[in-house]
Specification:
This protein is α+β, with helices and mostly antiparallel strands. The protein is 57% helix and 13% strand. A hairpin with a 4-residue loop joins strand 1 and strand 2.
Length: 585
Amino acid sequence: MDKPRLPNFFTIKASAAQRKTAYGFGAFMLLLTLAALPFLSRQLIEVKPFLPSFIALVAFIDCVTGYLFYRQYRVSGSLPLLVLAGTFFYSGLITIPHILTFPHVFSETGLLGAGKQTAVWFWVSWHGGFPIGILFFLMALKYKNIAISVRNRKLTGFLTIAAVVSLVVVLTVLFTQFNDALPEIIHDNGYNSIITSGIGPVIWIMLLLAVIGLLKLGKMRTILDVWLTLAVFVFFIDVTVTLIAGSRYSLGWYFARINSFLSASVILSIFLYEMNRLYALLAEQQQRYQSLFMHNSDAVYSMNKERQLVSVNNACSELLGYTKQEYIHQNGGNFIAPEYKEASAYHFEQALTGKPQNYESVVLHKDGSRINVQITTIPIIIEGEVTGAFGILKDITLQKESEQKLNEANLVLKEMSLIDAMTGLANRRYLDQYLEEKWQECFKNEQPISFILLDLDNFKGFNDSYGHLEGDQCLMKVGRVLADAAEFHGLAARYGGEEMCIVLPERTIEFALLMAEEIRKEIEGLSIPHQYSSTGVVTASLGVSTIFPSKDTGSNEVIDHADQALYDAKRTGKNKVVSYAGVNS
């Protein structure tokens, strides 16, 4: 299953109104620049508070913007967002040594041992580094759908920011300690050499490529496409105006500084706008969550990674009898029945790995009573890390009682399906299952299995003389004799009609013959009148067989042998026990 994508500047679509606003503002800045072209080189007075105020704002805005992009990266793992974070951090940080080394601001020649060319080279690094960062961002766009793993995000982010800071430090050392070796690109506040040296045009071309790349690849689809394109375009105007103005403190120079401020402010402004909008949505979602959480009919709670309860809903109190205050900071395992604690702890640990859990358990009410519940444990994942878990307790006591009654009913039905209704003995189906199972066990253990087959003598005449009701009573009495005889030795079953049998696993022929004779005597001893019997009472004939199961024999053989012995008993006078070998008891 795909993981849900968290909202970021790549997933929030730009509205038509936002696109129109961006196009309109860009067109306005372009027209304003064109209108000011004839006057850009006009010299104005030096306003000393202007530059430090402007740089302070730009440094602050770019660093805050870089931080916000970094937070978006930590949540989403998006490499392009990390590149933007590094770009804006660089842009904000590089302005600091730029203003510190600018002449006539903090000292006549600037701080940090600055030379005449130091400040302008910081400007070149600032305005050249920004488009380079944007071009890197455009190259990273092909990886925007591949998130950096949660485990590596922190390290990757740290290394990126460390690289940006290190670059600023290296440039600061280079431009201050080796300022005499810097090529001269400014003279008496005039910087036409930036153009003639080719440095200015290279920066201008990189910015133009950045604007074109953003328009081509982004196509103004998302809010990031719209406002980043506008910010880079305004920055492009800044460099254009600076190069045309040609000197510090000219109208174009001041105009370019304002453009730099506007460029820095665009992204931060949209961040603040979107944060305010998302805060409103978050407040609404929070209310929805509270409604779902607090008014859920099931017990719902949240725990931290140590399994301490952080919040519970009203249903928790109703289910277990504790107040909300009594739950907070308690270990969730304290409410689990002792024999279920280990399994519950295992499922919680599994949830902390990011795997939702669903299992049955038993919890303890405040009064000590036990409640069957179904527990669902859902990991709480923030910025890709599991910080705790939600739990849902569903009372399934009635369900378990219903299941128990159903199981009991099924057991009764199963027993009924295996028992002969009249005699209470096993029916033929159960007999076949039991015999096959015991046959296999005896074969495995190399033990014999014996079989007694019984038939009531002249039973048809009994039914004809006394009626079927008396016949049924007779069968029931005989069935009880067989059930008592087999109780601790095997299985008594009704074989069919007036025939009954006993399966005797791991019993010898001698044992079986003795049992059969005892059964014959007990049946005769019941003294059930029978006018067609030579003894005047109901009697039975029994056939006995014993086999050692082997690969070449089957369970039916022991029945066939007993049946042949029974036939011999009937043929030779009835009311007797005969073994398969033909030996009369």
